Amino acid sequence: MIYLVRHATTYSYAEPVLVAHHHAHLAPRSFDGQTCRRSALRIQPAPTLLNEDGRDYFGNRVAFFTLQEAHRTLTVEASSRVEVHPRALPAPGETPPWETVAAMLRAAHGPTLLEAMEFTFDSPFIPCGDAALRAYAAPSFPPEQPILAGLLDLMHRLFRDFTYDPAATTLATPILRVLADKRGVCQDFAHLTIGCLRALGLAARYVSGYLLTRPPPGQEKLRGSDASHAWVSAWVPGAGWIDLDPTNDCIPGKEHITTAWGRDYGDVSPLRGVVLGGGDHSLKVAVDVEAI
């Protein structure tokens, strides 16, 4: 499938911003399941400096820009053309036991294992040492459970046990609060799933991107109604990284578009920066994903 993705972000400030420095994860990355054919940014007011060719530690594409013109509104529009080609997955029962995978990661050597091991530790949004996380994960990972079977069971349970509720959490809500309240949004469910897997010694990373949404029957799709989305990728020997979407209880395929991955949301937030001035501000985001 080939998609056109448009992501528009508008900041409105109560007071003028005198100087601003920003970086953006808005260009989809290319890897074995996806190819970004082109991506471009349109920024108003025009930046004094702009570099769209940056790469972060995880290999994600990053744009850096500076604004030295006073402004009360900042608009950043990203447009991309992306081809998605999902990979074939192994049969869950043919993957190794999860304990074997955890042991491999503890004794990691060689570039592939060392890269995966980096995603077994705490990160700023995902402290994974709490016993409650391991306890929630435990029913999905009995002794000798094939790792992919355990991953799928955990995803199914989380989808069944938790309620999608945009009013329940903020970016600052700890994952243990999400676990206790059993409510949240895609970001929370991704963080919680990752925390459960890391608590078992397994490697899991946070994936940000887009999800093609469909309107209710008989209704037209509204512009801007598609979604920025978050899901999880877990490392499985012999298969590499396998994506899981606990919010929608599915393995991401042709309708998920990957922008970036990292340890948690903080590594891959779409747009962040430092400003001088501005005071209070409001944020508006619109996303369109169009299959062509």
Automatic annotation (TrEMBL):
Alphabetized InterPro entries for the sequence: Bac_transglu_N, Papain-like_cys_pep_sf, Transglutaminase-like
Protein name: Protein-glutamine gamma-glutamyltransferase
EC id: 2.3.2.13
PANTHER family in the record: BLR2979 PROTEIN, BLR5614 PROTEIN-RELATED
EC supergroup of this enzyme: transferase
Gene3D superfamilies listed in its UniProt record: 3.10.620.30
Transglutaminase-like domain sequence ranges: 178-248
SMART domains: TGc (SM00460)
SUPFAM superfamilies: Cysteine proteinases (SSF54001)
Keywords: Acyltransferase, Transferase
